[in-house]
């Protein structure tokens, strides 16, 4: 069984023939099926989308025409990961607040990639930093804070 879907052309560099994918069917929450990319259309449509097809490796329980979500996982390399809730925007730049000695510290970050829940951080944070992940929307640099363990 095959599944076809569209991706935006800027994501093509992350795909190749044989790439692994995971299929999630809306009518069967919590269950997934493994797939592999078998076709990548060499033409980009006028709206910037590219049609891709994948073969579902063990399609038992699936039916033609079911609505599904496709996830293609790839390694972003070695980066620190931070929850999206920790990132706020200031002057069109991404900022993460860290906690040190009872104060919130403002850190501009540069991200490398993202998924639905996290950013991969290229610069601006160090391993071991205590990142503030909630209550950070209205913080300013060197604001006195109280932390909970």
Q: Which terms would index this structure?
A:
single chain, 149 residues, mainly beta, five-stranded antiparallel sheet, four-stranded antiparallel sheet, 0% helix
Describe it.
There is one protein chain. With 149 residues, the protein is an all-beta fold. The chain is 0% helix and 46% strand. The protein has no helices and twelve strands. It has strands at 2-8, 20-25, 32-40, 49-56, 68-71, 80-83, 87-90, 93-100, 103-108, 110-114, 118-123, 143-144. The strands form three sheets. It has a five-stranded antiparallel β-sheet, with no helix packed on it. It is elongated, with a radius of gyration of 20 Å. The model has no long low-confidence stretch (mean pLDDT 92).
